Amino acid sequence: MPEDELSRSSHSNPGKSLVNGIKTNPASNSPKSSFSVPVGPPVYVDLAYIPNHCSGKNTDPEFFKRVRASYYVVSGNDAANGEPSRAVLDALLEGKSQWGDNLQVTLIPTHDTEVTREWYQQTHEKQQELNIMVLASSSTVVMQDESFPACKIEF
User: Where is the stretch described as Disordered (predicted)?
Assistant: First the structure.
């Protein structure tokens, strides 16, 4: 391997050249993000799981600009670790506002948390403007000795 390639490899700088499988530029002075998103068109999917239990560690407005889903699942339920993150929920609003079309988006929280309740109440008008609907867990599934909230999703 040529010396210049070796100096750029993860062997010479372990854990620094890859973030979530994406090559990073150590010379970059970008304070906003520690990883770069490859250039390309947005991806449209029916259902997307917001990464890392809706933690702000890996998800920003760029995620929602690029991954355009009819349904987003929010599974965070750990307030001590910032899950779900208010910043990520706000990033959904920011990202969706850049779409240029008014496709319906449904947000599906898997847990009823203080963060999601406050975000819902404080941004309800913006959600309506952007055609975002938040599903509440209105059903309960009971399995043996365990019960948990559930939402029915139809495609």
Answer: 1-36
pLDDT in tens, 22-32: 444 444 444 44
Q: What are the sequence ranges of the domains in the chain? A: 43-149
Read off the pLDDT of residues 97-111 as tens digits, 9 standing for 90 and up: 999 888 999 998 888
| DSSP notation for 34-103 | SS-PPP---EEEEEEEPHHHH-TTT--HHHHHHEEEEEEEE---BGGGTBS-HHHHHHHHHHHTTSSS--
23, two tokens? 């090559």
Question: Against a cut of 0.85, is the pTM above it?
Answer: no
Sorted by sequence, the CB contacts under 8 Å of residue 1 that are 6+ apart come out as 9
113: amino acid identity, one letter: T
Pairwise CA distance, residues 32 & 62, whole Å: 11
